[in-house]
Protein: Lipoprotein
Organism: Moraxella bovoculi 237
Amino acid sequence: MKLSILTLTLSACLLIGCSKPAEPTQSSDSADTADNIESHNPHSIEALTDTLKADGVDIDSPEIQPIITADGKIQINWRLIDTNTQKADINSYQYPIDIRSQAVQNYAKAYNISDQQAQHSIVVSMAAPEALGKILDQLEDGYKGHELTDGADMKLIIHTKDNVVADKHEYVFADKFGEGLVLPIEIRPAK
């Protein structure tokens, strides 16, 4: 009996919750205020677009553009990606991950490398998105995928369509996590 009363009560609550929604009661002044707030919202893409256009910025032609070669291929413009950060001395670098950590020990064992090499590889791999994002901005539709090689000679390999020029580069991290460390990058187009 108690179970059927409880079931009826819950069913009634569900039906009440599913009834017709209330009609909006905003006056036109409230709607204008809401639109005004939205146009000044720093998180609104429309507000950002309006602000950039008002400042004379051509949003249809982004500043970060690749080089287009004579044969129509995309070539990464490294000048727009490089950070001008000095390369760090890895012998005295203060890594943000302790060399005695279990992660470093496991990595060193898995790839048969020294603890120092493992520590370096882990930090570089964790900082890699800084470089990857900048490169993806230029690849347009040429990007297919990427991989980070493991071990002592870590590098970022970016797989692209055949309309991208093969290239190699060394990226120096600017972000505090990995600042000054170098990430070798290889652009590898499909054959």
